[in-house]
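Protocol step 4 of 5: obtain the predicted structure for the target chain.
Materials: sequence only (see below). No template structures provided, no constraints applied. The aim of this step is simply to have a reference model before the mutagenesis design in step 5. Sequence pasted as it appears in the construct record:
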Amino acid sequence: MDKYGLIGYPLGHSFSKNFFNQKFEDEGVDAVYENFEIPSVEVMQEVVDKNPNLRGLNVTIPYKQKVIPFLDSITPEAQAIGAVNVIKVMHIGKKTLLKGYNSDVIGFTKSIEPMLEKFHKKALILGTGGASKAIDYGLRSLGLETVFVSRFKRDNTIQYADITPEVVREYNVIINCTPCGMYPHADECPMLPYEAMNEHTILYDLIYNPDQTLFMKKGAEYGANTKNGLEMLLLQAFASWDIWNDEM
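Step 4 output (structure tokens):
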């Protein structure tokens, strides 16, 4: 039986485990998906060694960057983003090779592309964590200019206080890559001049619980088009499966 899994720490409720095991059951795939809660990234090699039928791994926090030195190869996209969330495990003779990919960028670009119009040329990326790098890469691959927004003064960022109504009208695609507004803190939202938004504004939230965050609600009141992160999550899971089962 083939095995797949998720590495991270800590691992609570896992979308991936439930999603893939249900997929295997529904499609009659002889495979199982397990959570590997490992206290340090070095333990990943032990997981690989102890599971000779392992074919693929998903990677979540805090290991998306830390895992890279332990891989045999990495795609140009993952290299540019600086984060890996999918590992293909290849058994060639007695050797086991690990290749890193980033399916977040695939899921995000496929999800937001249908929303984009010709007047969407510039985007604000709220947050500077691991996910924001994939979002930045995806937006730029779709032809948008990007600016990162941080709560703190960092190189190559602006701060929330700098976001005026004029900025919102110019940067009319806004992606929330922060946990602000995530359950159980659903009464919180990024501090923005929502009143400057209109039907030309896109608000995309990587959060999917709750399914409509306060960030989305406040923008929608002024006509903004909104979307949460559930479709991106599903699309990146589909992309993981395609990566693991691509014979190349």
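Step 4 remarks: The helical segments are 15-27, 44-50, 76-81, 103-112, 130-141, 165-170, 214-220, 230-245. The longest strand covers residues 2-8.
Proceed to step 5.
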